[in-house]
């Protein structure tokens, strides 16, 4: 099983979502950006590295949500979502087709990658029922 970290980058009450490049698997679908953990790498270190590489942003993870396991044809992934704060950088798309800053209630309108769907649902529940 491949371990993948994804970032729910929050800023001014909105969260960053990214559209996968059309040349990739699941191309055109929306996701929380991230990438595969390298051997021995923590999800937190992975997400800071991946977001800097893919979006030129500096973030700091502050909490994890429940991981989502998804089985694709020929592979399985364990998607580890991390809530993150934006600290700097200028958003640049190196791998994605588009990005948007959305309010939590706007998230269901997008066509999501299947692995991200349970994370979207948990995030919306969490933001509508803050502890």
TrEMBL record:
Q: Which residues form the signal peptide?
A: none
Any one Gene Ontology BP term: DNA replication
Any idea of its EC number? 3.6.1.55
Q: Which reaction does it catalyse?
A: 8-oxo-dGTP + H2O = 8-oxo-dGMP + diphosphate + H(+); 8-oxo-GTP + H2O = 8-oxo-GMP + diphosphate + H(+)
Q: Name one GO molecular function term.
A: 8-oxo-dGDP phosphatase activity
Name the needed cofactors. Answer: Mg(2+)
User: Does DNA damage show up as a keyword for this record?
Assistant: yes
Q: Does the keyword Cell division apply?
A: no
Every copy of the Nudix hydrolase domain together lies at: 1-128
Name of the protein this chain belongs to: 8-oxo-dGTP diphosphatase
From what organism does this protein derive?
Cesiribacter andamanensis AMV16
Gene symbol here is nudG
């Amino acid at each position: 099983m491949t371990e993948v970290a994804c970032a729910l980058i929050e800023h001014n009450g909105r969260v960053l979502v990214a559209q996968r490049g059309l040349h990739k698997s699941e191309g055109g679908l929306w996701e929380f950006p991230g990438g595969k953990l390298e051997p021995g790498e923590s999800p937190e270190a992975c997400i800071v590295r991946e977001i800097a590489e893919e979006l030129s942003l500096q973030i700091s993870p502050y909490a994890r949500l429940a991981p989502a396991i998804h089985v694709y044809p020929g592979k399985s992934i364990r998607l580890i979502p991390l809530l993150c704060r934006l600290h700097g950088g200028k958003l640049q798309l190196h791998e994605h087709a588009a990005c948007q800053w959305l309010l939590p209630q706007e998230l269901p309108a997008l066509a999501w990658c299947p692995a991200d769907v349970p994370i979207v649902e948990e995030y919306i529940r969490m933001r509508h029922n803050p502890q």
